[in-house]
């Protein structure tokens, strides 16, 4: 028996064409499923098609099963564009970004997570992003989590039943040298039953800061994600496990002289991988 001839370049290109056609056909098939899903979800009426918990699950599953030559960065960005664009075709939306800390990182984050079909609109500060989202039908807003003290207590604009709420923390898949790794909060108008509550966020106003406050919060799986002076008081953005009762978090803040306490959003649990492979 003669040995099989070595695979030629033309054969390999034929394979690549076959795979490309199959991928394209699968994407078109995915869009047919989304067409049916539109009539089931009735999102055009409610204005928002986002299901951030579902998106976090898809991204996590993808990262966990990925292997081979293709960098995870590429796979993640391709799927982000697929999901963000399929969200867009269900109900058009724009992404409003606070670029007070610089345009480049926010633009990278928006393009990586939402692609180029979704319009990207810049704003001078977080408050203006929150206002734009509040006035829209179903837009998203993004801003850096690590804003300096000069940004003020931006999260206080998220207080109130009708005010926008934090719905995600990006990137979904954290790792060293992530190509769009700036940690950002993503906001939308309240998603009600569509929100994922693995981490719940609270706005709190206390009289003073203390190390015992940090310890008290840590005992209840909570931490301060941002803080800013508020007259003679201190305003905090507290991130806590959704499994912990709200009353317990509130109680941990009482010794610090708690005056205000309100939920301002929730997101999926953070998920990290060691590297981009
Ligand atoms: O699962 C849904 O509800 C969808 O609308 C589908 C889909 C997707 O493309 O996979 C799109 C938007 C949602 O945020 C989550 C997932």
UniProtKB/TrEMBL annotation:
Xref: InterPro entries: Chorismate_II_sf (IPR036263), CM_dom_sf (IPR036979), CM_II_prokaryot (IPR002701)
Domain Chorismate mutase: 3-94
Matching Pfam families: CM_2
Gene3D superfamilies with a match to the protein in the record: Chorismate mutase
Enzyme class of the recorded protein, top EC level: isomerase
SMART domains membership: CM_2
EC numbers: 5.4.99.5
Protein name: chorismate mutase
Species: Bosea robiniae
Lineage summary: Bacteria, Pseudomonadati, Pseudomonadota, Alphaproteobacteria, Hyphomicrobiales
